[in-house]
């Protein structure tokens, strides 16, 4: 008798465990921008972490476009020097750019300090967040 009562429970357990796992829903771009701004604010409070490393100037702070975020992701991903939040920023940019299917070539005509590039990225993220 106890076996008959236990069988439906066991069957339900097997069925539930056989259901494929779902991927978490994609986070909205606005939330990603907010997280990016928070991370960049944290970096700006510790300027010694970033230092005076020169990097390609790939973002136009006056005319922030989606391609700029893509270019910054590429430049930071290929950067040799590490800083504390580099991985976090690159992941946030990668997720933000995930659905953006455009070729964004990096032209390295001009260089700026890394801390200034990150400051420009924060300004652009704030502008996009406000739209």
User: Helix/strand-derived class?
Assistant: mainly alpha
- CATH A-level architecture: Up-down Bundle
Calculate the mean pLDDT score and round it: 81
| Silhouette | globular
Distance between the termini: 65 Å
Q: Classify the fold: give the CATH topology.
A: Growth Hormone, Chain: A
Low-confidence stretches: none
Summarize the helix and strand pattern as letters. Answer: HHHEHHEH
CATH class: Mainly Alpha
Number of strands: 2
Tally of separate helices: 6
Radius of gyration: 22 Å
How many separate domains make up the residues?
1
Order of strands, widest sheet: 1-2
Beta-strand percent range: under 5%
Largest sheet: 2 strands, antiparallel
Helix fraction by DSSP (H/I, runs of at least 4): 55-70%
């Amino acid at each position: 008798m106890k076996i008959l009562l236990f069988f439906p429970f066991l069957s339900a357990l097997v069925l539930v465990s056989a259901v494929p796992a779902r991927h978490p829903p994609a986070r909205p771009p606005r939330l990603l921008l907010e997280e990016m701004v928070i991370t960049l604010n944290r970096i700006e409070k510790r300027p010694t972490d970033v230092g005076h490393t020169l990097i390609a100037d790939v973002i136009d702070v006056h005319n922030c476009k989606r391609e700029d975020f893509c270019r910054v992701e590429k430049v930071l991903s290929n950067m040799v020097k590490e800083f504390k939040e580099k991985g976090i920023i690159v992941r946030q940019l990668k997720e933000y750019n995930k659905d953006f299917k455009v070729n964004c070539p990096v032209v390295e005509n001009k260089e700026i300090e890394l801390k200034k590039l990150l400051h420009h990225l924060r300004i652009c993220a704030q502008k996009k967040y406000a739209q």
